[in-house]
TrEMBL record:
PANTHER family: CYCLIC NUCLEOTIDE-GATED CATION CHANNEL SUBUNIT A. It comes from the Bacteria. Signal peptide: none annotated. Keywords: Ion channel, Ion transport, Ligand-gated ion channel, Transport. Residues 50-120 form the Cyclic nucleotide-binding domain. This is Cyclic nucleotide-binding domain-containing protein. Gene3D superfamilies: Jelly Rolls. Residues 167-177 have a biased composition (Acidic residues). InterPro entries: CNG_cation_channel, cNMP-bd_dom, cNMP-bd_dom_sf, RmlC-like_jellyroll. It comes from Saccharospirillum mangrovi. Residues 148-177 are annotated as: Disordered.
Amino acid sequence: MQLVEHLTQEQVLTIMSRVRFFKRFNHADCLLMLEKSTQLIACRAGEWVLMQDDERDRALYVLLTGQLEVWKDDVHIGDIKPGHCFGEVSFLTKSARSSSIKCQSNAVLFRLQRKTLTEFPIHIREKIKDNIIMLLLDRVKQGPVFKEPAAAPEGDSPFQASKDATYSDDFDMMDDL
């Protein structure tokens, strides 16, 4: 995997605007996310993005282009298509990776580090949280083996945060749900 540095900010914003995970974010939100140390990562077909049981990487990923495979205990259990996110369990709980992710084709990923999330304004954190909640709910409905991960919801959030809501510096989203 390597950092993508050759795209202009406008090119990245254009890609983000086409991906379902970012549909609820306006242009200014996406621009702010890019400025706050989020990263675009390129991977080649056959390359492993995440390894099951890895405890070092706690990032949340959104697939922008390409196709990925999900593996658990050496069994292929599903595929990830552009617009879908993965890595949410480790991102939220600081736990080891629950599955491995392999590139089926060349891919570009949006990577959001846990620590970066605390730097975002609350309305952006709420949209990210809502997307993750909808993803997890969809996965619960699908059962332990899934054909295709859930994508982020479109439109208004089904969850409304209090205007007084705050997050601790040691961000632990599960405590706030």
